[in-house]
Design goal:
It is a single chain. The protein is α/β, with parallel strands linked by helices. It contains 14 helices and 21 strands. The strands form five sheets. Strands 13-14-15-12-11-17-18 form a seven-stranded mixed beta sheet, sandwiched between helices. A six-stranded mixed beta sheet has the order 8-7-6-9-10-20, with helices on both faces. Helix 13 links the parallel strand 17 and strand 18. Helix 2 crosses helix 6, helix 3 runs antiparallel to helix 6 and helix 9 packs across helix 10. 54% of the residues are buried.
Length: 460
């Protein structure tokens, strides 16, 4: 296993070389998380006004940029992220902090005319207090940042409970953020379920990214307490390819979305639906594109598909390989690291998990549909609804997809993967709960709106 989490310790290892222990430390426990929330609540006022918050977040951005090489190397080592992707994630992390540094100056409300009489009606946004962030390992710097930066910009204090597999990355990011902020305003509490449950039980708002099962439990617990909660819980994303699509481009985009970072993105493509007569040509083009994906050492800048995060993850991918006809890949080479080849499956077994569950590895299934209507139905019939890509040269077809697809995001002639941090991010159905992340939408989640009536003396 990549990590060991029990009542006593937190441990992460290098998935490309599991003998390399990256981080091992005692688990703080639920009490430590509850105490961190109490301290954060007391420290929150020290964040100050918009100018102070903007300056602090900008300092974080500058410090991330200054440490970019070190941070990228740590992501390669601890979570097996290919170097080129790790560098891009660090650059995006700096951009996120800089962006929200400016959004600290956004209006905090609006002024309205009264329906009758004199006076002033206005709305004001205020921070909740302490935001608990529970984050996954696959984007160890970007996801904590796109949650923490807007929370802090809005005036909240933050406690972060990272995935055990990304503990070292979270602690390094914490060192950068804490140096730029007042003491106690941002705290990382490593650990597992006990620490996460304590965060949900004590914080004033909760933002979660992770599995559907855990996310559902987080949503139920936070909702029972009456605190705001958002949860991003993965996807089973489809790529729809129409007969008029540029097949070479589509195959390249889809291969990258299947195999990039070994498929360990909630936006990765899991299902490829070929419409009409394009199935045969797409089968050949996509299998060829997947075979050409550079795989191997994540420290090599040319690598696209490195190891999966754990031995269990590799076993899950291997089980998927056995669920149908293998068109490309299907192998899990022996060796010290948890590597598995990008794989395309056709003719899946009846009831195959590939059709209903997220593998979270470089595996996808190729399906055929007689028409666009059937392809849309197939895309929509799964429990998840995060992102769909639609490959076509026809604008009417693209607009049809925008109207009919039940996903939070739709990308036309582009991979399912790829996130613009200044736009709302989130899914439908089992993929997401609550308000959207990122962009200005994040400020709405991390604040509560109050409606205020200011009447002149003597009444309105």
């Amino acid at each position: 296993m990549n990590r060991s989490q029990d009542a006593d310790s937190v441990r992460s290892v290098n998935p490309a070389d599991p003998a390399d222990v990256v981080c091992e430390l005692p688990a703080p426990g639920a009490r430590a998380m509850a105490d961190a929330v109490v301290r954060a609540r007391a420290a929150a006022p020290a964040l100050g006004g918009a100018a102070a918050r903007a300056a602090a977040l900008t300092r974080v951005a500058e410090a991330v940029e200054a440490a970019a090489g070190e941070l990228a190397a740590l992501a390669v080592r601890e979570v097996g992220k290919p170097l080129t992707e790790a560098r891009a994630e660090v650059a995006r992390t700096a951009a996120i902090w800089r962006y929200y540094g400016q959004l600290a100056y956004d209006p905090t409300g609006a002024v309205y005319e009264p329906a009758a009489g004199a006076g002033l009606l206005l709305t004001r946004r205020r921070p909740h207090g302490v935001a608990a962030l529970i984050t996954p390992w696959n984007f160890p710097f970007a996801i904590p940042s796109w949650k923490a930066a807007p929370a802090l910009a809005a005036g909240n204090a933050v406690v972060l409970k990272p995935a055990p597999e990304a503990t070292a990355c979270a602690l390094r990011l914490s060192g950068i953020v804490e140096a730029a902020l007042p003491e106690g305003v941002f705290t990382v509490v490593p650990g597992g379920a006990a620490e996460g449950e304590a965060a949900v039980a004590t914080a004033d708002a909760v933002s979660f990214t992770g599995s559907t099962a855990t996310g559902g439990a987080v949503v139920r617990a936070a909702t029972a307490r009456g605190v705001p909660v958002q949860a991003e819980m993965g996807g089973l994303n489809a790529a729809l390819v129409l007969p008029d699509a540029d097949l070479k481009q589509a195959a390249g985009h889809i291969a990258a979305a299947i195999a990039g970072y070994a498929g360990q993105k909630c936006t990765a493509t899991s299902r490829v639906i070929a419409v009409g007569g394009v199935l045969g040509p797409l089968r050949e083009a996509l299998a060829q594109a997947l075979r050409a994906v550079p795989c191997g050492d994540p420290a090599d800048a040319a690598t696209v598909c490195g190891p999966v995060i754990s031995e269990r993850a590799r076993a899950r991918a291997a089980a998927a390989h056995r669920s149908g006809t293998v068109l490309a890949g299907g192998s899990a080479p022996d060796g010290p690291g948890w590597f598995t080849a990008p794989t395309l499956i056709e003719d899946p077994d009846e009831g195959s998990a590939l059709l209903r569950e997220e593998v979270f590895g470089p595996v996808a299934v190729l399906l055929g549909a007689a028409s666009l209507e059937e392809a849309v139905r197939m895309s929509n019939e799964v429990p998840h609804g995060l992102v769909t890509s639609l490959h076509t040269a026809d604008l009417d077809t693209a607009l049809h997809g925008l109207d009919r697809l039940d996903t939070g995001m739709i990308r036309v002639n582009a991979p399912t993967t790829g996130v613009d941090f200044h736009l709302p991010f989130g899914g439908a159905k089992a993929s997401g709960h609550g308000p959207r992340e990122q962009g200005r939408a994040a400020l709405d989640f991390y604040t509560a709106t109050r409606t205020c009536t200011l009447a002149p003396a003597g009444g309105m």
